[in-house]
Design a protein that fits this description.
One of its GO terms (molecular function) is small ribosomal subunit rRNA binding. Helices cover about 40% and strands about 20% of the residues. By secondary structure, it is α/β, with parallel strands linked by helices. The longest helix is centred in the middle third of the chain and has 36 residues, at about 135-170. Bound molecules: guanosine-5'-triphosphate.
Length: about 350
């Protein structure tokens, strides 16, 4: 790839309520499993970047957790993380599923994005394979309308503040006329499952980047440290098929990753040690399962993904530990990397 004069590069972030399809879309764009998906809400805890290389641009995707109202300390940290991420990117992708009516959660998030300093917001209507043409068309119109509402509200609020500032300084307030085209920069329906418009979305996002040489070398998919990715893979495997409230109480830490010494050069193996933290002994029992059956399943699933990630054979050593109320304890949180 030789970047020409009109090559563009920059950062984009997908924001949306839990389960909106952000991680799946990141994977569809990047083309390899990088972000962690699950059909349980709030599984993405770390900011994971996927890098999309195209002849005319490079898109660095930052995958944030869903914006939600903080209930615990962990929730607050997630929201801080989101606010921090929003201030560092070039374009904001607001994900709204095609198969669910726009709700207060979407409005809350859209309003937050509108307040993030005039960055272009691309509204992405996800999972569009799940609805018919008529429903999709109606959702696109509703999303356009949402864009007009939140950006008009933001414009009026900015004007109101300008007025107050001017009055305080004893200056004349010169109101600006409301721009006629307030709204999202683009509204685009996609499906991460059948690939519908995924490439167009990449182009739209790249079009909002500034001219710049590539930010990362070609071929690099993620700069997330391997240990974090391994921990996420184990956490994902542990969450599979669990229907209770475990997701909020489960954390994984990859303690170390050591190449086995006595292996032939063409058949290496890595020893990986991961601790799974739960809050209560009863949860530990759930994770371990009858006679250790569930833990073995988790181990087997996670090992396969880790082998894919590292490209070598892996011996995975899993330990389940109880760390009481870790969600509410700042010291435990920082130990677990939050
Ligand atoms: N049919 C269909 N399902 C999708 C699509 N994208 C995502 N899903 C499903 O929707 C669910 C949630 O997707 P995720 O990508 O994990 O959602 P997320 O927004 O990252 O969720 P959090 O990590 O909880 O914030 C999963 O079960 C996905 O398989 C899509 O384009 N079509």
């Amino acid at each position: 790839m030789t970047p020409s004069g009109d090559f563009r590069a920059g950062f984009a972030v997908f924001v949306g309520r839990p389960n909106a399809g952000k991680s799946t879309l990141t994977n569809a764009l990047v083309g390899e499993k990088v972000a962690i998906t699950s059909n349980r809400p709030q599984t993405t805890r770390h900011t994971i970047r996927g890098i999309v290389h195209r002849p005319d641009g490079q898109l660095v995707l930052v995958d944030t957790p869903g914006v939600h109202r903080p209930r615990t300390l962990l929730g607050e940290r997630l929201n801080d993380l989101v606010a921090e991420t929003l201030s560092e990117v070039d374009v904001l992708g607001l994900c709204i599923p095609a198969d669910e009516k726009i709700g207060p959660g979407d409005r809350f998030i859209a309003a937050q994005l509108a307040q993030s300093g005039g960055r272009p917001i691309v509204a992405i209507v996800t999972k569009s394979d799940t609805v018919g043409r008529q429903t999709l068309a109606e959702q696109l119109i509703a999303v356009e309308q949402l864009g007009r509402e939140v950006l008009t509200a933001e414009f009026e609020e900015t004007e109101r503040r300008r007025g107050i500032r001017a009055r305080k300084k004893g200056k004349a307030y010169d109101p600006r006329p409301t721009p006629p085209d307030l709204g999202f920069a683009d509204v685009i329906p996609v499906s991460a499952v059948n690939g519908f418009q995924v490439e167009s979305l990449a182009q739209v996002l790249i079009s909002h980047m500034s001219p710049s040489p590539p930010l990362y070398p070609d071929g690099e998919l993620t700069d997330e440290p391997e240990l974090t990715m391994i921990a996420e893979l184990v956490r994902e495997a542990a969450l599979e098929g669990v229907r209770d409230e475990l997701p909020h109480s489960l954390a994984a830490v990859c303690e170390d990753m050591i190449p086995r010494e006595d292996r032939p050069e063409d058949d290496p193996m890595v020893d990986v040690h991961v601790s799974l933290y739960v809050e209560r002994p009863s949860q530990k029992a759930i994770v371990i399962g009858k006679g250790g059956a569930r833990l073995r399943e988790i181990g087997a699933t996670a090992r396969r993904s880790i082998e894919k990630l590292l490209g070598t054979k892996v011996y995975l050593d899993l330990h389940v530990k109880v760390a009481k109320e870790w969600q509410r304890d700042p010291r435990q949180l920082s130990r677990l990397g939050f």
